[in-house]
């Protein structure tokens, strides 16, 4: 049985409202599809194998070994549509608490984070919600990568958010992140909103998301990020 997520109603095709609606998309298909297959979108946009892929850096905002948000990143790598390469930054462990006094002697891990962000075409964040907001571990990493002043690695980057949370699915953490993105001058994808409620109960015995509805919503988010990134690059 398909797991319920907050995203599903958003994923049903809405030819007039979809942010990635494409001219000439065969509307007759829309009513029979649960979500629009990504390869149709790539094809409709005229993407071919000669079009360079976009590189997406994925950052999970949890240090927990069995983190559902780390599992969301793994799912993203597996379901990425053609033309999208997702790289997992890996554990944020080892990034010290930000202190302006030491920002000039930047720790190696922060240097690596900043370099990977700078090299990426877009960012994908998978985050839990802690006490209605963004976990300190993630906010701390964001603060480091935004410094020193004048060298904000996130400047002008497209970004997509997904969250695996408790009963709320992490929506409020997502909203708080969007607030942070304004200061960072990032460009968030608005929809689909991927927020997995009671996410721990939706992992399989190996700690992976296998539910097609969840994997489909992650894929649709990457499709939207791909479309958005290419649109921004065109200027
Ligand atoms: C300190 C703390 C605060 C939490 N606050 C919330 C919350 O505000 N809303 C929510 O939906 N879940 C909340 N949770 C539950 C987590 O979102 C949930 O455990 C999630 O699976 C953690 O993500 P992870 O598996 O990637 O570590 C909280 C958990 C902790 C440890």
Describe the fold and architecture.
- By secondary structure, the protein is of the alpha/beta class.
- It has a single domain, classed as Flavodoxin domain (Rossmann fold), CATH 3.40.50.
- It has eight helices and six strands, in the order αααβαβαβαβαββα.
- Strands 1, 2, 3, 4, 5 and 6 form a six-stranded parallel β-sheet that branches.
- β4 (158-164), α7 (171-184) and β5 (187-188) form a beta-alpha-beta unit.
- α4 (68-79) crosses α8.
- The termini are far apart.
- Bound molecules: flavin mononucleotide.
Cofactors and ligands present?
flavin mononucleotide
CATH superfamily: Flavodoxin domain
Q: What name does the CATH topology carry?
A: Rossmann fold
Q: What is the succession of H and E elements?
A: HHHEHEHEHEHEEH
Principal-axis shape equals globular
Q: How many distinct domains?
A: 1
Q: Could you tell me the strand content as a percent range?
A: 5-15%
Brief summary of the model shown:
37% of the residues lie in helices and 13% in strands. The chain is of the alpha/beta class and 235 residues long.
Task: Considering the chains and any ligands shown, give keywords for the structure.
binds flavin mononucleotide; six-stranded parallel beta sheet; 8 helices; 235 residues; alpha/beta; disordered N terminus; Rossmann fold
Give the helices and strands, then pairings.
Blueprint lengths: L7 H4 L15 H4 L7 H7 L9 E7 L7 H12 L4 E5 L19 H12 L2 E6 L8 H10 L12 E7 L6 H14 L2 E2 L5 E3 L15 H23 L1
Parallel strand pairs: 1-2, 1-3, 3-4, 4-5, 4-6
């Amino acid at each position: 049985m398909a797991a319920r997520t907050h995203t599903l109603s958003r994923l049903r095709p809405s030819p007039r409202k979809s942010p990635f609606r494409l001219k000439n998309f065969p509307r007759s298909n829309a009513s029979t599809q649960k979500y629009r297959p990504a390869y149709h979108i790539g094809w409709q946009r005229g993407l071919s194998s000669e079009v360079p892929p976009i590189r997406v850096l994925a950052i999970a905002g949890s240090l927990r070994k069995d983190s559902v948000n780390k599992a969301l990143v793994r799912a993203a790598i597996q379901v990425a549509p053609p033309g999208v390469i997702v790289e997992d930054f890996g554990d944020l462990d080892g990034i010290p608490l930000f202190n302006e006094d030491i920002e000039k002697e930047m720790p190696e891990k922060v240097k690596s984070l900043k370099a990977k962000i700078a090299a990426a075409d877009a960012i994908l964040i998978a985050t839990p919600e802690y006490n209605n907001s963004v976990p300190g571990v993630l906010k701390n990493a964001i603060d480091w990568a935004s410094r020193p002043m004048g060298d904000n690695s996130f400047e002008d980057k497209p970004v997509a958010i997904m969250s695996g949370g408790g009963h709320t699915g992490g929506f409020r953490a997502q909203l708080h992140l969007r607030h942070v993105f304004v200061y960072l001058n990032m460009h968030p994808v608005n929809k689909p909103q991927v927020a997995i409620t009671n996410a721990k109960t939706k992992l399989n015995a190996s700690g992976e998301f296998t539910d097609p509805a969840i994997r489909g919503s992650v894929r649709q988010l990457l499709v939207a990020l791909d479309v958005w990134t290419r649109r921004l690059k065109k200027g």
